[in-house]
């Protein structure tokens, strides 16, 4: 099921269906979300211009993101638009 969900998230991203991504991931209890799902959620929130929420998501996985260039890019983007 996880692989199917990840494929669906990518498909929605390519189709600019960012709200569908947020809805699907937020249905999963927070304690069951891993780094990958949280990153997808943060990216979707950035694309919806919900930058404060995106920063919250990225900060919740900051330790795992330290070695991930995409994490740095995405949180930087959110902070940039928050000024």
Kindly estimate the percentage of residues that lie in beta strands according to DSSP. Answer: under 5%
Please work out how many helical segments DSSP would assign.
6
* Strand runs, count: 0
Q: Please give the alpha-carbon distance between the first and last residues.
A: 39 Å
Average of the residue pLDDT scores:
96
Share of residues in helices: over 70%
What structural class do helix, strand and pairing data support?
mainly alpha
Taking all Cα atoms into account, the compactness measure Rg is 12 Å
Global outline: globular
* Largest beta-sheet characterization: none
Detail the poorly predicted runs. none
Task: Give the H and E element order.
Answer: HHHHHH
Protein traits:
mainly alpha; 83 residues; single chain; 76% helix; 0% strand
Could you give a quick summary of the protein structure above?
This protein has 83 residues and is an all-alpha fold.
């Amino acid at each position: 099921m996880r692989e199917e969900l990840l494929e669906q998230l990518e498909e929605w991203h390519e189709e600019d269906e960012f709200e569908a991504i947020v809805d699907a991931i937020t249905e999963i209890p927070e304690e069951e979300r891993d780094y990958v799902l949280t990153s997808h959620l943060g990216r979707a929130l950035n694309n919806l211009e919900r930058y404060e929420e995106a920063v919250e998501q990225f900060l919740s996985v900051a330790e795992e993101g330290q070695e991930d260039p995409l994490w740095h890019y995405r949180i930087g983007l959110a902070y940039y638009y928050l000024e």
